[in-house]
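## retry 2 of 3
previous attempt timed out at serialization; input unchanged, resubmitting
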Amino acid sequence: MSRLILVLGDQLTPSLSSLQAGDKAQDIVLMAEVGAEATYVRHHKKKIVLVLSAMRHFAQALRADGWQVDYVRLDDPANTGSLRGEAERARRRHQAEGIIATEPGEWRLMQDMRVWAQLLSDTRFLADRDGFARWAQGRKALRMEHFYRLMRRKTGLLMEGDQPAGGQWNFDHDNRAPPPGVLGLPQPMRFAPDSITQEVLDLVAARFPDHFGDLAPFWFATTRDQAEQAFAHFLRSGLADFGRYQDAMLTGHRFLFHSVVSLYLNLGLLDPLAMCRAVEGEWRAGRVAINSAEGFIRQIIGWREFVRGIYWWQGPAYAQANALDAHRPLPWFYWSGETSMACMRACITQTREEAYAHHIQRLMVTGNFALLAGIDPRALHEWYLAVYADAFEWVELPNTVGMSQYADGGLLASKPYAASGAYIARMSDYCGSCAYDVKAKEGARACPFNLLYWHFIARHAERLRKNPRMAQMVRIWDGFAPERQAQLRHDAEAFLARELV
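## retry succeeded, writing output
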């Protein structure tokens, strides 16, 4: 008898473990577009189009490779709207003896699917979940840098024998240059929608008109070949300056030297180790400096693998972490972009239009503001999960709860990533067009990041004075005259009362 091989929307990889375990002669691949996956958070319209179009193209490729594919479309009148419902319908339809699948990337699906499917390990990652748990067990705090060195040794990337190439593991101190001039900045490769994508665009426009985000222009890659072209374009045009300017932000230049391929990688259209080998090859060929190559590779085999390990090790309760007791609701301007803060307006507008913002825009602008203002981390997590095309919970949740909001109390990050307006002024050109004065520390025109920074330090002084990386800022706060402390508190609270509605 035949079996069903269920392939999920972020498993678009020909070497997927479930496909490797299947038999083309008798097994049937099942792929299903279900409403529950588009709406458990209200995903950005472009994100829904990307996933559905990439799924349809992958099904086409599987058929060309000799697989029998049963593909259930979202607009099928008999569609049950749930993954389990479609799996059961297909099992009866084909009289299949069972369902096999590669384990899903999110707890909510894992808890459901393990009841009705045989789950195989996802071999597309370098670190397996059990191995990470053994490494993490018993450690008081987890630091990506220690894990990253293990991954470098495991893969041999940027290694000279047992030592790191260039004499050091991390070149991050070379990767913090302020914004460059605007001339000659590259653009990510863009692809015109084909007939399959256009059909999905029409479907999403009709079915999800009230979801966040713009549909047009849609230019993302939707096939493996296109994703590989996009990455090759980055190697030629962006990698050389990626490291130096990876933390910079520019109004009107949304991509700078970033690859904009994380969305393809997280769908399974790109191979992470192959990407890193290609980047290493550019360095060994002398075409890029080691700080750019190392910075990119660290994001893939360091951060990406590390946060996935955290996600599975911590379990579903991690989403409820709130160590700083932050409970303010997410302000409406996170959806509308309508705020007088130029940096927030730029990053949110870009997010609405592109379903993309780079990691510093997320961490040090929208994330930093939420941290300083005491926004509920669960609400921020659901916003990030909804609005970015590359956001899947296993990678997004630890970055939000642990890295951005310090809501896990320091399990993942060694300090809260709190910063005043001075950081944004140094790393961007946003402040020049802002209604607020980034140099002002007090008063109604003072940059809200300046006011909220000290408000944050004051609120959490007892916790932060025990943190070696934050204790100095608490001592500075303690040294302010009582009158100045009172004024800073008043100004910050007046801003919060005025703007967070």
